């Protein structure tokens, strides 16, 4: 079927199924799912600038729904989320500007594709190592967190971050953080926003690990708070990319219909898994996305 | 009359985002059977809806896209956000309806 806005031909059922799969992961892991949605759109034949913008748009509706699910379960640290919002918006706009520049240079597919692959493979490897080390007890540090079911092999790193006394210091009661520099929080938010604007989606694949490992937020709160940021970054990113002509909202609407069904299933599934196991289950997914992009870049072949 | 409908709208919005107690969360967790029935009905509704979207909105959106990118950006955000919220409300109402029929 032809999508007149981007001028591309894609099977709508492929989009709905892609949205459905991404919706399950989004609801379950608390990430927007762009590690699969972006590569999925790329191999369907969309150029990277359209992939980034359209993926951001489809995530708006899905993340609002998933965020509400976590909000009523008490998994969102509203104070942390609101503080991060400023950094997220600045980072998202910066990412969108880089895409615009690359579009003019006609380098957007190669540059975004290569960065996407590097980021996805790194995240996949790190999360697999960390969660496996935590579950099997081979921790680099033996320190345990307050929640016995939410230990982390690298929780010592977040403790060192908490000791950086750079004024102003803030307290995040919901995240059980007694004192942390405001600048650390804003930098984490900006990095997340930059990835959202540059690679599309909500950038939960970067923000969620940063919240857990750098800020030391408990995994369940990190999942909910990350979704709150995804709502902000995807909303701002959608507006910014749509003005720049990078959003095919019809593709996004079709993908979201599948995602809405998948998200219902994903949120319910979170009740049955503990912190490190959620992270271990998440770890191979970014790698699958990387394989799809490599396939698209090397062969130039598009699956329709 | 207007005040009453405003109050009920406000109460509905607050209820939608209010942090639930552990007991409320346990009560609101659907039984597997009700959840599967809800997902089946919801899927049918969503599939029929997306064919409506494709046939009615495509030309209108293409025109806006060509004429004014700012308006297009606002409409695009509004459409996807509304779709998210409306589908969520339908899903919640369906689950309630399915569970009350099963009781």
Task: Describe this entry's structure for a reader.
- The complex is a heterodimer of chains A (304) and B (103).
- By secondary structure, chain A is mainly alpha-helical.
- Chain A has one domain.
- Chain A is built from twelve helices and four strands; from the N terminus they run ββααααααββαααααα.
- A two-stranded antiparallel sheet of chain A has the order 1-2. Chain A has a two-stranded antiparallel sheet with strand order 3-4.
- In chain A, β3 and β4 form a beta hairpin.
- In chain A, α8 (204-215) packs antiparallel against α9.
- Mean pLDDT of chain A is 82; it is low at 139-144.
- Chain B has 103 residues and is mostly helical.
- Chain B has one domain (28-102).
- Chain B contains four helices and no strands.
- In chain B, α3 (32-67) runs antiparallel to α4.
- The longest helix of chain B is centred in the middle third of the chain and has 36 residues, at 32-67.
- Chain B is extended and about 50 Å long.
Summarize the structure.
The complex is a heterodimer of chains A (304) and B (103). Chain A is mostly helical and 304 residues long.
Measured by DSSP, the beta-strand proportion of chain B falls in under 5%
Low-confidence stretches of chain A: 139-144
Instruction: Give me the count of strands of chain A.
Output: 4
Structural class of chain B: mainly alpha
Shape of chain A: globular
Number of beta strands of chain B: 0
Q: Round the mean pLDDT of chain B to the nearest integer and report it.
A: 76
> How many helices of chain A does DSSP assign?
12
Instruction: State the helical fraction of chain B.
Output: over 70%
Secondary-structure element string of chain A:
EEHHHHHHEEHHHHHH
Helical segment tally of chain B?
Answer: 4
Strand order within the widest sheet of chain A? 1-2
End-to-end Cα distance of chain B, whole Å, is: 34 Å
The major beta sheet of chain B can be summarized as:
none
Structural class of the secondary elements of chain A?
Answer: mainly alpha
């Amino acid at each position: 079927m032809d999508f007149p806005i981007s001028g591309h031909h894609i099977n709508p059922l492929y989009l709905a199924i892609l949205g459905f799969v991404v919706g399950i992961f989004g609801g379950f892991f608390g990430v927007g799912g762009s590690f699969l949605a972006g590569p999925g759109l790329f191999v369907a034949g969309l150029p990277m600038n359209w992939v980034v913008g359209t993926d951001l748009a489809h995530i708006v509706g899905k993340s609002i729904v998933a965020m509400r699910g976590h909000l009523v379960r008490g998994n969102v640290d509203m104070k942390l989320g609101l503080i991060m919002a400023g950094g997220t918006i600045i980072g998202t706009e910066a990412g969108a500007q880089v895409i615009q520049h690359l579009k003019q240079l006609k380098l957007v597919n190669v540059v975004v594709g290569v960065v996407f692959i590097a980021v996805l493979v790194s995240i996949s490897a790190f999360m697999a190592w960390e969660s496996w080390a935590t579950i099997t007890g081979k921790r680099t540090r033996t320190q345990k967190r307050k929640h016995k079911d939410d230990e982390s092999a690298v929780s010592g790193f977040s403790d060192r971050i908490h000791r950086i006394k750079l004024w102003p210091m803030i307290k995040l009661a919901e995240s059980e953080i007694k004192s942390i520099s405001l600048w650390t929080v804003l930098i984490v938010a900006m990095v997340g926003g930059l990835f959202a604007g540059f690679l599309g989606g909500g950038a939960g694949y970067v923000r969620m690990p940063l919240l857990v490992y750098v800020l030391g937020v408990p995994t369940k709160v990190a999942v909910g708070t990350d979704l709150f940021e995804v709502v902000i970054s995807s909303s701002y990113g959608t507006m910014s990319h749509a003005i720049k002509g990078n959003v095919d909202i019809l593709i996004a609407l079709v993908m979201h219909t599948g995602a809405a069904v998948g998200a219902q299933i994903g949120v319910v599934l979170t009740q049955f898994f503990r912190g490190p196991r959620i992270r271990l289950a998440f770890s191979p997914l970014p790698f699958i996305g990387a394989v799809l992009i490599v396939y698209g870049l090397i062969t130039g072949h598009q699956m329709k | 009359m207007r005040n009453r409908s405003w109050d009920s709208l406000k109460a509905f919005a607050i209820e939608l985002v209010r942090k639930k107690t552990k007991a409320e969360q346990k009560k609101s967790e659907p039984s597997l059977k009700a959840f599967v029935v809800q997902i089946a009905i919801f899927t049918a509704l969503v599939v029929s809806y997306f064919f409506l979207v494709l046939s009615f909105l495509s030309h209108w959106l293409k025109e806006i896209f060509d004429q004014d990118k700012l308006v297009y950006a606002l409409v695009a955000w509004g459409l996807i956000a509304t779709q998210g919220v409306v589908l969520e409300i339908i899903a919640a109402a369906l689950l309630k309806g399915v569970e009350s029929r099963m009781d």
